[in-house]
Amino acid sequence: MTPVRRLGLAYNPTNPAAVQLRAQASGWAQALGIAHWSATSADLETLLVELPTTDVLIVLGGDGTFLLAARGVCQVDVPILGVNLGKVGFLSRVEAGELEGILGQLRDGEYDLEDRMVLEGRILRAGQPTTEERYVALNDVVVARGALARVVRLDVDIDATHLATFIADGLVVASPTGSTGYSFSSGGPIVDPHSRIMVVTPIAGYLSAIRSVVVGPDQVVRCKVISALQALVSIDGHDDVPVGEGDVVEVRAIDRPIRLVVPGGSQPFWDLLRRKVEILPS
Asked: Which residues does 119 contact at the CB level (< 8 Å), separation at least 6?
């Protein structure tokens, strides 16, 4: 691959280990002759300014930090690499102690890229047919009840076909990458992250015969809020947007993927998954 000449460091400022590693990584990059910059993962404005002239974005933190930073590369096509400083880090291919050596691989072009499908979520407000709110997600788009402990009633369609009416805590529409997250904890399958599908999974569905379904990348999942005292749309675990009765959330796959950096010698996904699952608390 193309040798990396300029990289970005996106980090979690509330994690002391991430702050320390950012300083160390800056020194290592300087010693290797790699230009670099840094910003917090939540600073989307800075990310969008710096990414167009950046070869690789390195994220220091857990999966939440990675998903925040991924908002930038969803808009500006730059490869991204996660360095795990969280508990599990399904999205990370590198552990903190490996980063110094990985920077040398990046400088020498010793890495590959893999594509991951991205989702687009649109909110169509009742009574406002020409107005839509658009969001981009790497992991999932979730329609769920808010703080009130009351279920929501959701009509779910796949294209023009009615799938089910769920009385549940909510609904997860996950990408292959997101299939290891909220969807999995709600009973959905783990799928190959390189595939192009969507996983549709109700959260704690009441008397529902449908637990989880897999749909194609050219289909549109439509979720209409039929009744709810309080409901929210969550994009990758952030950007919680209130929705009300009659509002519709549409989720579809985006044609352009984001690209993840795979350093030389990285474990295959299923080996990585097994290792990550083994460290989860029982």
From this structure: 136, 137, 138, 140, 141, 173, 175, 178, 198, 251, 252, 253, 254
